[in-house]
Amino acid sequence: VPANGLVAxxxxxxxxxxxxxxxxxxxxxxxxALLRTFPAEGMAARRVGKAVGSARNEGPQCLAAAGPVQASxx
Length: 74
What we know:
The protein is mostly loops.
């Protein structure tokens, strides 16, 4: 889906994020009407280390924060 204000400085698209109350409808119908940009106010961003940039890496090192959680990193 189109990126929200938090993601847009990094990329023009982002994954669709469905809130839990919409999961059942998505699984039952898979309706495209549920595919919309998630509000930036419901998200946070944090810098991560270089390990996340390689598909060969797995594990907690990919989730380790390389800085504080922020509303915007850009």
